[in-house]
Amino acid sequence: MAANRGEWAELYVLFKLLAEGRIYSADENLNRNANSYLEIIKIIREEVRNVISEYHTGTSIEVFISGNHVISIPSVEFLTNANLLLDTINHATGRSFDVTPATEAFMNRAYITQVKAKSVSSYGDLGGKNDIVMEIRDHSTALISIAGFSIKAKGKSPATLFNTAPASAFVYRLTNLNDTDMNNINNLFTTAGGKDKNARLKYIVDHDINMEFMGNKIPEGKEHSVFADNLDMIRGDMQEIMNQAILIHYTYDGDSTKLSDICSVLINKNPLNKRNAEAFYTKALKDFLYASFAGMTAGSPWDGREVVNGGYIVAKENGEVLVFHTRDGESFKTFLFNSTKIDRPDASERKGYPYAHVYKINDEYYFDLNFQIRFTS
């Protein structure tokens, strides 16, 4: 049974949480807060649509399928198999790989037929991007609730928080150039044959070619930019703030593309002339990151809700599993801010969102830049 690293990590989290019966909160530096945790009453999965599996925690894990008890498994066996799976994940190579026969046999015994379960539709709209649904008791408030959580694993293949799309491109009109400049720019390639984005931007800057921001790309067949509307739902000036951040990313002379470093440059430039620049730009970028986590994308209309029912679970390389609960919102936003970078997606035609080349419409020259947000590790 082959799956990718992130999918196996989700199964590891399932085993680990069932074995331990609780999950501790993380602080903004991804360290355990020993005074804050969630007690796990049960984990709910829907591997087959409308067929609910429930795993009740305790000394033994009691498994119910559609309300019928099917097996009791000592919780220590989930811990043993969690450790076995973690070892497989840490030593595997490639994007997709198989686990040991022992892990597959344990999955079958525990009535787990899918590495990654579907979203649990029977419990309604839990908000956010749910990889696991649990009934929990909050240690701080003693309140019991059913909540959905997103899972990300820190490791060899950093996860993406905001995915690129044709609609996420930023469009610029170029002036003070001609067809010769256009051809010169479009013929700048890396030694590997890809578009040399740095060299193309450098040519534009060095030749005093003006770049006027025109807005976000309007996909073919559409009348407006959904992404622009979504950015406006976050805050009215979000589009211009992201435009400035993208330009800094592509022209930044520093060694880092971390969002926090780009924000420092943004604060110093202060393109929107804010008196409280540090607080303003930091909060704006945190708001963008949190909206991305909460479900905002470039291609689908977003209603502006930042209602994430549960939170965000992180599986660390050493096997520790921690949670950012929605009540820890500011700590979580700070974690996102300190742990993400702007990344450049593939600009090839085969990916369906080519950018970083000059093109003409009605004798005017245009140039697109695109991006994605990825975790640093």
Keywords:
alpha+beta, 32% helix, 6-stranded mixed β-barrel, 377 residues, 10 helices, 4-stranded antiparallel beta sheet, single chain
Can you give me a brief rundown of this structure?
The protein has helices spanning 5-20, 75-91, 101-109, 179-186, 197-206, 226-234, 238-251, 259-269, 277-293, 329-338, and strands at residues 2-4, 22-26, 32-48, 51-56, 60-65, 68-74, 96-98, 132-138, 144-153, 160-162, 170-175, 210-216, 311-315, 321-325, 340-343, 358-361, 364-369, 372-375.
Secondary-structure element pattern, one letter each: EHEEEEEHEHEEEEHHEHHHHEEHEEEE
Give the helix proportion (percent range).
25-40%
Average pLDDT for all residues: 89
Give the biggest beta sheet.
Answer: 6 strands, mixed, barrel
Task: Record the strand order, biggest sheet.
Answer: 2-3-8-9-13-14
Strand content: 25-35%
- The tally of beta strands, per DSSP, is 18
Global geometry: elongated
Describe the protein.
By secondary structure, this protein is α+β, with helices and mostly antiparallel strands. The chain contains ten helices and 18 strands. The chain has helices spanning about 5-20, 75-90, 100-110, 180-185, 195-205, 225-235, 240-250, 260-270, 275-295, 330-340; strands at about 1-5, 20-25, 30-50, 50-55, 60-65, 70-75, 95-100, 130-140, 145-155, 160, 170-175, 210-215, 310-315, 320-325, 340-345, 360, 365-370, 370-375. The protein has a six-stranded mixed β-barrel with strand order 2-3-8-9-13-14. A four-stranded antiparallel beta sheet has the order 12-11-17-16. A hairpin with a 3-residue loop joins strand 4 (about 50-55) and strand 5 (about 60-65). Helix 1 runs antiparallel to helix 2 (about 75-90) and helix 7 crosses helix 8 (about 260-270). The radius of gyration is 23 Å and the shape is elongated. The two termini are about 25 Å apart. Mean pLDDT is about 90; it is low at about 120-130.
